[in-house]
Amino acid sequence: MLNRQKRLMLLMVLILSFGLIRFVLFSQHGMKDWPVVMLVVGSVLLLISFLLKLDITYCLMSVGYLFSYLMGFVFQSDSYDLGGGLLNDLWKIWLISYLSFFVVGIFVDIIAKKRR
């Protein structure tokens, strides 16, 4: 079980990941609002994990923010819309992989609780 100090450390990992992605890596993705949206999503999922006492999910939500961004960055692709504008799917991959971390964490927590 995670104690208070470990939970605060994992929360700081989430906040530092946000700062890294939003400000330091801004030139790589060019998105001003999406990192904030993902931080809100991550905070809500972190709160759900805390309230339901899902320790593994809590850990995955903290480190998953950065790893899911990296997955989006690696697997992103550019395309054109019908009007000729350039589209990039980094944000979709980032969101889907982050939610996948949440789902995997829930399953692992359920399996771990059944084994106890």
Structure description:
By secondary structure, this protein is mainly alpha-helical. It has one domain (4-115). The chain is 78% helix and 5% strand. The protein is built from 5 helices and 2 strands, in the order ααααββα. A two-stranded antiparallel ribbon has the order 1-2. Helix 1 (4-24) runs antiparallel to helix 3, helix 1 packs parallel to helix 4 (55-75) and helix 3 (34-51) packs parallel to helix 5 (90-115). The chain is elongated. The two termini are 12 Å apart. The mean pLDDT is 95.
Q: What is the number of strand segments?
A: 2
Percent range for β-strand residues:
5-15%
Q: Radius of gyration, Cα only, in angstroms? A: 16 Å
- Overall 3D shape: elongated
**Any idea how many domains?**
1
SSE run: HHHHEEH
Q: How would you state the average pLDDT, rounded?
A: 95
Trace the largest sheet across and list its strands.
1-2
Helix-strand category = mainly alpha
Task: Give the SSE layout.
Blueprint: H1 4-24, H2 26-29, H3 34-51, H4 55-75, E1 78-80, E2 86-88, H5 90-115
Antiparallel strand pairs: 1-2
Notable characteristics:
two-stranded antiparallel sheet, 78% helix, single chain, 116 residues, mainly alpha
Brief sketch in words of this structure:
It contains 5 helices and 2 strands; from the N terminus they run ααααββα. The chain has helices spanning 4-24, 26-29, 34-51, 55-75, 90-115; strands at residues 78-80, 86-88.
